[in-house]
Amino acid sequence: MTHALRAPGKLRLGVNIDHVATVRNARGSAWPDPLRAALLAETAGADGITAHLREDRRHIRDGDIDALMAGISIPLNFECAATAEMQALALRLKPHAVCLVPEKREERTTEGGLDVAGDVPRLTDYLAPLRDAGCRVSMFISHDPRQIEASARIGAAVVELHTGLYSDLLAEGHAELADRELAALRKGAELAASLGLEVHAGHGLTYDNVEPIAAIPELVELNIGHFLIGEAIFRGLGPAIEEMRRRMDMARGLA
Question: How many C-beta atoms surround the C-beta of residue 255 within 10 A?
Answer without folding.
Answer: 10
